[in-house]
Amino acid sequence: MTIAVLLKQVPDTTAKITVSNGRVDENAVSKWSFSPYDEYALEAALQLKESMGGELVAITAGPARCEKLLRDAAAVGADNLVHISAENINDFDSTQMQKLLAAAVEKSGSSVVFCGKQAADTNSGSTGPGVAELIGASCITMVSEVISDSGGYLATRPSSSGHEKVAVSAPCVFAFDKGVVEMRRPNVRGIMMAKKKPIETWSIEELGLDLGTSGISIDSHSPPAEKPPGQKFEGADSVSTVVGKLRDEANVI
Amino acid sequence: MPYEALDFYDVDSLLTEEERMVRDMVRDFVDQDVIPNIEHACREGVFPDEWRVTLGEMGVLGAPLEGYGCPGLSYTAYGVICRELERGDSGLRSFASVQGSLAMYPIWDFGSEEQKQNYLPKMASGEWIGCFGLTEPDYGSNPGDMITKAEDMGDHYLLNGAKMWITNGTIAQLAVVWAKLDGVIRGFIVEKDDPGFSAPEMKGKHSLKASVTSELVFQDCKIPKDRILPGVKGLRGPFSCLNNARYGISWGAVGAAQACFDSAKEYSLSRIQFTHPIASYQLVQNKLAWMLREITKAQLLAYHLGQKKDAGTWIPEHISLAKMNNVDIALEIAREARDIHGANGILDEYCIMRHMANLESVKTYEGTHDIHNLIIGRHITGIQSFTREL
Asked: What is the topology classification, in CATH, of domain A2-226?
């Protein structure tokens, strides 16, 4: 059995984001990382593979810098690495991305797919359900844990009254939320094996895809509005004013 | 604020992808496991055993050694590991230096095939801890006059003498001990339970508090004949080990300096005096600029030395220069950083004072600052100045 993990490289949460000419300046991003929800998905997929055998293929789409992500995935245990080469990844809308990833999943022969519930940069949250629809698979979202269970899988996700366990059989897609597992740290052996592991690079043409044109166009990016300056109060006379603001404006007391 | 490693010239861009991955792995370990626990470990005066386990799991012990379960990384990668560990604490880096360069290395280079197969895999995994016995109470910079001796008793060796300032001694399962056999310095592997061997811990240190320092005492210590290291005689044995450990220290000191710089920068930006952040004052900026300057130079020294180690084009004097310079500037940076932190700098809420106190030891051990100057002086002039007995 082959398990696919869909990984997205996003600016690290500590990286400074700059906007120039109405676009996020990717060249100014000092550090790229796994999208955090993808890390949970990868760790859960590794654990599932370890419990039942099979192969794990890590799939990412994007420019050449994304290969780092695949090496990192290999260092913790991904068996096969697939890079869908696409320099203009930001020009694709969610539907196009889903087509791209669904085609790669099918080409990899995977029947079980793990991904994050949303990417930490675009946050659209559509990849898991979209890919599931295209490959004709069941989809479970907001998953925190997956175990194998009598030929199928048992996924834990939140419900209105706590947690529910959902039984599903392949083909299926699990979109991961933050759960009980943190991604493992690699070790030197894994890192050295990752170095030797080949990365399969697939172009959009090789996947036989006609993605058409994007249905949406991004007008511009803008940084978050700056926080308004704080207010300063001095002296005992201001106590009643401060208490009033904390109570009526900040609603904290 | 998350730690940001100062790398003004982007020296790490010269590392291989593998070396950067190793860096990130060790940096993550230090962030997650070491920094939150280091002050407690210092107060208790213990080396947390979990760190031994994790170092073994990460597979960084004996980093540049190949075969027998060892990692087989580059010397540059070994340097990077030391730098990241010492960003956490010099005691942690000392543990790794002693295990890899001083205990595993001599077995790897000078040991018999049986010794390598017996000891190296369990030392690489962290299951066994090693220590290194060279320094004696009366012989520090002058190890050639050591008193500890070994006698060939026919079917075993008998060791007598004492070693001092031995990192990992009390917690080690194995000691590589240098002793004179018929007047010639030889290496011996002593195991924890060998009769006549004890390793009492030295207490009361103001430095390297999260590292175990011990005496090694040999009173008619009886060891089997197959525990002598067959491959080396004379001071070349221990000095070969020290070259590797000192090389790692030249990188490690950069890590301690980076930690102090990072803390000083953050503190100076947030500390308000005379209505402005102290970072806005010229005297403080001058200090920060000097720190950046010295760290950048030290990084370049360490990196280039790493390349020379990997290419095999190094000489011991290159290592002396890097060890001496980098520890020296790291200690001065720690002191300046303490100054920038004002009174807060003496609290264990900040890493400054701990690094400063640690670096006082690092300046002295593995060849004192002055001895390294003499090694370089001898290289320049061709005249040794260690002793008057010419």
From this structure: Rossmann fold (3.40.50)
